[in-house]
Specification:
The complex is a heterodimer of chains A (120) and B (116).
Chain A (H helix, E strand, L loop, with lengths): L1 H11 L14 H4 L10 H13 L23 H15 L5 H6 L3 H10 L5
Chain B lengths: L5 H28 L3 H17 L6 H17 L40
Classes of the chains: A mainly alpha (120), B mainly alpha (116).
Subcellular location (chain A): Mitochondrion
GO molecular function (chain A): acyl binding; acyl carrier activity
Protein name (chain A): Acyl carrier protein
């Protein structure tokens, strides 16, 4: 009965047939509200280095993508905590406490942020 | 208790980890309370001074007591409405738009199948 009604209506109304492209390949990701843009690794490296360089206790000329916060830059463990918090604010991340404790060098920070699905 | 036993070192390492996590949480709470950056910087400096003053304590039992006192003080000062990143648990966007289960697709020619 519904199909008869439907065809009766459709006989009188012109409904344009849209291009029936099958979206099942990308439909899963395109319906989620966040997390679908993976950051470019070079962009991540640039932003991380910028954050580390603007830390007041750090000498900007020594910062490279492989630098270790405590061994190379001579920072304290509390300074490492502060740098990780600054990185959290920069990339709008929420890092769990245990994970944040393990981030000890620029290299680890870049790896973690690049592999995080929601880093922005 | 000799200084270089493995259990002593393990205990010291566990204490250092507790101190770092306590500092991290205290700093986040300071940011929650003092939203304006210039206030936050002065408060963060004061917090850092408190941690630096006890930096050179060597006695393990005293360190344990100080960490417990610090955590009690932190619990007293916790913010009732902390800022949590929206997509994290407790944030406003958490579980808001979960990815739909596999196999769901949009049918674009609904109602027009008989016409084809």
């Amino acid at each position: 009965m519904a199909s008869a009604l439907r065809s009766a209506i459709l006989r009188h109304i012109r409904v344009p047939v849209t291009n029936s492209l099958s979206l099942s390949g990308s439909a899963v990701r395109s319906m989620s509200s966040h997390g679908d843009d993976h950051l470019d690794k070079q962009a991540v490296i640039d932003r991380v280095i910028h954050v580390v360089k603007s830390f007041p206790k750090v000498d900007p000329s020594k910062v490279t993508p492989d630098v270790h916060f405590q061994k190379d830059l001579g920072l304290d463990s509390l300074d490492t905590v502060e740098i990780v918090m600054a990185l959290e604010e920069e990339f709008k991340l929420e890092i769990p406490d245990k994970e944040a404790d393990k981030i000890d060098s620029c290299h680890l920070a870049i790896e973690y942020i690049h592999n995080h699905p929601i880093a922005n | 208790m000799s200084v270089s036993t493995a259990s002593y070192l393990a205990r010291r390492a566990a204490q250092k980890e507790r101190v770092r996590i306590l500092y991290r949480r205290a700093l986040k709470d300071t940011l929650n309370w003092a939203v304006h950056r210039h206030l936050f910087y002065s408060d963060a400096d004061a917090l850092r001074e408190k941690f630096e003053a006890n930096k050179h304590v060597e006695d393990i039992e005293l360190i344990d007591r100080m960490i417990a006192a610090g955590e009690a003080e932190h619990n007293k000062w916790r913010h009732p409405d902390p800022y949590i990143v929206p997509w994290a648990p407790g944030g406003s966007k958490f579980c808001r738009n979960p990815t739909p289960p596999l196999g769901i697709e949009i049918i674009h020619n609904y109602g027009m199948e008989e016409r084809e």
